[in-house]
Design brief:
With 136 residues, the protein is mainly alpha-helical. The chain has three helices and no strands. Helix 1 packs antiparallel against helix 2 and helix 2 runs antiparallel to helix 3.
Length: 136
């Protein structure tokens, strides 16, 4: 099924807005608010919960953006001889690739941090960062 240009443009733009806006809110809003949490273990737990909740929505937003982008590329293939069309398509593709790489890198860092937390010994009640290091 071919996407019509308005549908492709809408999927592309709304998907990008949700993908970028949600990520920006997470980095500035969620992570910024977590600075107020004193306990590092609690801060990490809350950050993990917040970013895990965003994961499904971010994936859907990215998929909508990519689907719309594919529709725009298909439209541009027909119009490639018009002035500026090939350059715009190449620019959109390069920027989308860079955003996908940044998202993949952030996801890999999040998975690495989650694995590191899983290997870290849990502190007994009353011990922790204020009373000194945990002993396993």
């Amino acid at each position: 099924m071919a996407l019509t240009p308005p549908v492709a443009r809408t999927l592309h733009d709304v998907g990008l807005a949700a993908w970028f806006g949600g990520s920006l809110m997470g980095v500035t809003g969620l992570n910024g608010a977590l600075d107020a949490v004193g306990d590092p273990a609690e801060r990490e737990r809350l950050a993990g919960a917040g970013w895990s909740g965003w994961g499904r929505i971010g994936t859907a937003a990215t998929a909508a953006h990519l689907l719309g982008g594919a529709g725009l590329l298909a439209r541009d293939a027909v119009r490639r001889r018009e002035p500026g069309v090939a350059a715009a398509a190449a620019t959109r593709t390069a920027l989308t690739g860079a955003a996908l790489a940044a998202s993949a890198w952030a996801g890999a860092l999040g998975r690495r941090a989650r694995r590191r937390r899983a290997r870290t010994p849990r502190c007994a009640a009353g011990s922790g960062w204020r009373s000194g290091p945990c002993r396993s």
